[in-house]
Amino acid sequence: MSGKGATHPLLTALRAQRVLGTAATRIAPATVAGIVAGGHLDSVGRGFIVFAALIVADMILERERHPLHLMALVAFAVRTAVPVLGAGLALATFALAGNPVPLGSLASAVVAAWIVIAFAGWSSARFDSSRRVRVAVIGSPGLALGLAEELRNAGIRSYSVIGWIAGDNPTTERGVGGPRRLGSLMEVREVVEHHSIGLLVHTSGSVDGDETRHSRLEVFERVADSCMDLPVRLIEASQLYEDLLGHVPLGQSNSAWFQYLLHPRYRAGSVWSKRVFDLVVGAAMLVLTMPVLIFCAIVVKLTDGGSVLYRQRRVGERGAEFEMIKLRSMRVAAEGEGAKWSSDDDDRVTAIGRFMRRTHVDELPQLWNVLRGELTIVGPRPERR
Predict the structure, then answer these.
(1) Radius of gyration over alpha carbons of the chain, in Å?
(2) 58, 166, 190, 345: which could join 209 in a potential S-S bond, CB 3.0 to 4.6 Å?
């Protein structure tokens, strides 16, 4: 164990991921595009304008990433659209300055930016896999096991759940078949230093695992008092789930989630405005993704000759049932022996089905449910009865 005066790495895994993400996927494409444009137009000044235009375009399109980063196809489309928008802004700037350039003069700069973006995505994925953020869960072994499984199923390799931290009772048993018990909350500093923990994940509510119970405030005070000088960060499980996976487990939600509904400034949104939003956005997304839908539908049909769509009864608003449609990702008659949950290595999933599930393409037909008013773009996930 190292003492409070011990030195720590200047660049933790969390910080390294942020630095690489900013440099490789934002600054590098703009820089390369600016250099290529400057050489092609024989002007350093115009090259700098192209660089600045791509930075501005990146700020516009990726100002709010959530939940775009949860959908691989949409995130890819947004990222590749940045150089196109940046080139358009640069061309508009040249025209307004009285020195217009041909429309195709920045094509090479856009292609160069795309190449850098592709390489950045590949290198970032390899870096995240090789230098994962080491996570310790302050709470129950069940949450640690569930988080580890969801990260694995979602293909998120940038985080690794090392274990869990229980209450202050040293006799608490280790989790069976899951992440190990790293220590008690009293030993949080030693745990962080000994296991090189970069992120502490705190459950909503008290710490489980023994008879000792701690409130949320006590956990934050204990961590702040023990680890303020360490390169470790603390986040609540609900926020981490929402940021990485796009949902929050029911066990991590409580009445505090609805406190804003009682606030004097709260005003419920208009039902009609939400419906108009669903119609406009749903129709636009359906048109834009139609080529992908048609391609995947053809592949599904050619795979085994079965039906392209999969229909399932779900429960919607106020308990009304409806038939939700998806592209079929499992083999024909996959639920011949009755419905059951799909697992990570489910042999019922076809090869094209695994790709569609990973990219969420199989869920695109649900846009038809949105247009019919059975689903909404932003809302809770409908489940089986």
Answers:
(1) 25
(2) 166
